[in-house]
Amino acid sequence: MSKINTKKNQRPKVLPFSNTILDRLRKQCEIGLPEMEFLRTSSQAKFLTNRYQCATTFLQELDLLKKRPYLVSFSDQVRNPGDFISGKFLDREWFVLRNENKNLRLYRNSCLHRGTRLIPGGKAGSINKIVCPYHSWTYDLDGDLLTKGCETIQEKLYSFPVLEKAGLIFSGFTKNVLDSLSSILEEWNVYELDSYVPFAIQSEEGTYNWKIGVEIFLESYHISTVHKNSVAPVVEKNVSILDPIGEHARILIPNRSYKNTSRPTRKDLIITYFLFPSTILILFRDHFGIIQFQPISPNRTFCLRAILIPEKPKSSRTIRFWEENREFFFRTTSEDLGLAPEIQAGILQNEWIQPSSLEPGIFHFHNSLTNALV
């Protein structure tokens, strides 16, 4: 990963971790293994593989995903009043916009009259009013119905809670869905990520269960094999510590420089935040990547990947710098995701699988998932 000195990325590189956490990681560097304390409290030692193909389980997971936060969009995509973008999560269509006071609003993409989609799917642009293409029922940017004489039991578009942090926009389908993010977002304040903008966004569908996608990014055991020519030369082999944050988690993987410094900063670590159940944020020294998995069927998944940087590049030199980081992020995560269909195909040949003690993140994920589905 490349380095460059720009005014914006000279932001604080301090870490929001206690000395106890940093010392735990230093100890694991000396041992050469991930911390296994978490495994002593894990209730599962092996997992039946029908959870990766069972239609009933899949429907239960869809219901769970509707009750948890998900990534909607990026702040830079709706920067100014009237800016909007529409999208879909599972079976729910929505559009998000910034109103005249620059506050975010996220609405169900459906007219109060006959239910017509108000904004074409996957469209972005700028508007000063929301106009239904069927009968011209018109709403202001706060969702209030402006058309007079309409017979309706509701005069305001149905809205969802919305939260903006680190250049990201989160939402969910239930009233207090975003509350679970509070402890993680408080930790993010130290990184000063709110001005970050997407440099590159990529999405694709793959033939694997969504949980397989998540699992890949919750352990470092595979790095020396899958990333032997990319990430492996940079990080300590098989070393990590995991701290659950409710259903979510933080995973710290030390770079080779970590054990040689008494005051580690962001450049000495790869910091992964797992936002349960399907979002991964990977924080590097001066940028971060985000990955979100959205189930389509038990064996098909939509994956969104993006890299966010401190500010839009203003010179050819900074463009080249971020292009190098973009290429590295998408190449290495493609090394991971390229294996996902092979994992899916092979996993179904067995009745059960047994993650090793080198993969505590897998146990945390499945413990959280099992508890949430009860």
From TrEMBL:
GO molecular function (one): oxidoreductase activity
UniProt protein name: Ring hydroxylating alpha subunit, catalytic domain protein
Domain of life of the organism encoding this protein: Bacteria
Keyword Protease recorded: no
Record-annotated Rieske domain positions: 69-171
Keyword line: 2Fe-2S, Iron, Iron-sulfur, Metal-binding, Oxidoreductase
Source species of the chain: Leptospira noguchii
Pfam family, one: Rieske
SUPFAM superfamilies linked to this entry: Bet v1-like (SSF55961), ISP domain (SSF50022)
Top-level taxonomy: Bacteria, Pseudomonadati, Spirochaetota, Spirochaetia, Leptospirales
Gene3D superfamilies linked: Naphthalene 1,2-dioxygenase Alpha Subunit, Chain A, domain 1, Rieske [2Fe-2S] iron-sulphur domain
Required co-factors: Fe cation
